[in-house]
């Protein structure tokens, strides 16, 4: 099951954080996401840290496992980061999670193209939230496919 999803901006500012599973405290997801940002820096290819354009896979895969969760990362060419927190009991293939992240990226792009959205500000789109909730509900119901 997906426990939470976070979208983090270029300057490591939270753009969107949503919890989909009961946690002991909501602040723990913020801590988990914040602690994963260092891994993004470590795994980013050298060419993506500069202005050069490189062909790299945006899906970083497993960032690191925790006691109850696994964290997966995805980074866009504009350095927006997606963190997906998955319960350890979820045994779906990583390829499906990659497809989930690509759909999330597409959803983010649609939201960012809204003329009323300010780049770098929190995502407040009702459509973004509804479609993400639908994607997570589909994932958690074991019906998600690429």
How are the elements arranged and paired?
Elements: E1 2-8, E2 14-19, H1 27-43, H2 46-49, E3 59-65, E4 69-75, E5 81-87, H3 94-112, H4 126-140
Structure description:
Helices cover 38% and strands 23% of the residues. With 146 residues, it is an alpha+beta fold. A hairpin with a 3-residue loop joins strand 3 (59-65) and strand 4. Helix 3 (94-112) packs antiparallel against helix 4 (126-140). It is globular and about 40 Å long. The two termini are 16 Å apart.
Overall shape: globular
Poorly predicted tracts of residues: none
Number of helices: 4
As laid out across the biggest beta sheet, the strand order is 2-1-5-4-3
Rg is 15 Å
What are the secondary-structure elements, in order, as H or E? EEHHEEEHH
Specify the biggest β-sheet: 5 strands, antiparallel
Q: Which structural class matches the secondary elements? A: alpha+beta
Q: Regarding quaternary structure, how should these chains be classified? A: single chain
Overall mean confidence score, pLDDT: 85
Fraction of residues in H or I helices = 25-40%
- Please tally the β strands and state the result: 5
What percentage of the residues does DSSP assign to strands (E)? 15-25%
Distance between the termini: 16 Å
Features:
single chain; 146 residues; 5-stranded antiparallel beta sheet; 4 helices; 23% strand
TL;DR?
This protein is of the alpha+beta class and 146 residues long. 38% of the residues lie in helices and 23% in strands. It has helices spanning 27-43, 46-49, 94-112, 126-140, and strands spanning 2-8, 14-19, 59-65, 69-75, 81-87.
